[in-house]
Amino acid sequence: MALLEEIEQQGNRLFKYRGTIPLIFLLVSLIVFINNIYNSSLTFDKVFNTYYVYICFIVSIIGLFIRVYTVGHTPEGTSGRNTDNQVANELNTTGIYSTVRHPLYVGNFFMWLGACMLTYDLWFIISFMLTYWLYYERIMFAEEQFLRGKFGEAYTNWANKLPAFIFSFKNKVPNKYSFSFKKILKKEKNALAAIFIVFFIFENIGLLISNFPYELPKSFWLFGTIASIVLYIMLRYFKNKTNVLDEVGR
């Protein structure tokens, strides 16, 4: 089997699990975080009572914002969360897709980077970046092969102008579609809750290790987690039980 075909097959396999495999990053981050607290001068106060943790949170929110902006300007049948097969009813080439070829994966990168930064371990953060790139490089390659096969020259003409992962604004084109708030509420309803849950878990593990007896802190992370979970449940109900979030073509 040619190397290109092998990489494409690997990418298609990884594509099916791209929503769950990154959880391994989170698990490893927690292990590194716990190890650093046990075996270094890190304490809970140093970890969660400083501006650094809010910088980590902002990094994750930047990733969420990139995803929201991207998905909100796309039509139905593109930029989805499907895992079974590649889907693209239309080639997105305007808006953020005129600045980078894979904006959703850029968003995912920042969302997970914020959590990895909580470990306070520079070498782990660098390792995450390299692993993320190797992992998603194959997924991006498989997606691009699919798009090349479906859209032909229109795809190659667009792709040749843009970097895969680093934004370039020299060929910026206005969005073809207006921003759909309903689509965001329907498609990205779990992302904010996921970020708050991750930070809440880190906070409480840090407390369990550093401070006994344990007492649930009434913190920003607790209230943010509760509010975002309630919001998620409400949006899930509206999506599954009503047509409030439905929008033609989006």
Structure, explained:
This protein has one domain (3-179). The protein has helices at 3-16, 22-39, 44-48, 51-72, 103-117, 122-151, 153-159, 181-187, 191-210, 220-241. The mean pLDDT is 86. The protein is an all-alpha fold and 250 residues long. It is 64% helix and 0% strand.
Quick overview of this protein structure:
The protein is an all-alpha fold. It has helices at residues 3-16, 22-39, 44-48, 51-72, 103-117, 122-151, 153-159, 181-187, 191-210, 220-241. The protein is built from ten helices and no strands.
Strand content: under 5%
The quaternary structure here is single chain
Number of strands: 0
**What is the chain-wise order of helices and strands?**
HHHHHHHHHH
Mean pLDDT: 86
Helix content: 55-70%
Distance between the termini: 39 Å
Q: Please indicate the count of domains.
A: 1
Q: Tell me the number of helical segments per DSSP (H or I, 4 or more residues long).
A: 10
How is the main sheet built?
none
Structural descriptors:
mainly alpha; globular; 10 helices; 250 residues
Task: Map the helices and strands.
Blueprint: H1 3-16, H2 22-39, H3 44-48, H4 51-72, H5 103-117, H6 122-151, H7 153-159, H8 181-187, H9 191-210, H10 220-241
